[in-house]
Amino acid sequence: MAESPLLSEHRLFVVMGVAGCGKSTVGAALADRIGAAYIDGDSLHPSANIRKMSAGTPLTDDDRAPWLDKVGEALADGGGKRIIGCSALKRTYRDRIRTSSGEPTGFLHLTGARAVIEARMHLRTGHFMPASLLESQFSTLEPLWPDEVGCAIEIDRPVGEIVAELAASLA
Length: 171
Prior knowledge:
This protein has a single domain, classed as Rossmann fold (3-Layer(aba) Sandwich). Helices cover about 45% and strands about 15% of the residues. It has about 170 residues and is α/β, with parallel strands linked by helices. The protein has a six-stranded mixed beta sheet, sandwiched between helices. The two termini are about 15 Å apart. The model has no long low-confidence stretch (mean pLDDT about 85). It is built from seven helices and six strands.
């Protein structure tokens, strides 16, 4: 796992990555492990965004902007360590979250092969994001830039291993 040495100095974290990479599962488990509050960023989407994605239409930057502001605000709303699951696919999206949160924010990028993520998406039920949008997610994705505080971690292993490695990075 490549990580920034400043990661342990932050209290706000975004578990990021394309749809189906495990943001909600890993984020909630990590929050439980380190005693942080967890927020699922999907719950902050306006209904228009959910309708659009449910219909198989990718969101535009304009669609995402108000949601990203809510993500940053929700992340900073409260004390202690806080984690939110949010795709945060582009550098500009991450910059917007950082600005909206009003304080330094670390990004934990869950990475994986498209085939692994697509298989996971086909297995999940009750989620508004169809597997047909995975291509648009990968084409939009910009990995963390060298000057961004965060790390990238491979997801093709048990959740417990991923959480243990991330928790060690945040300690």
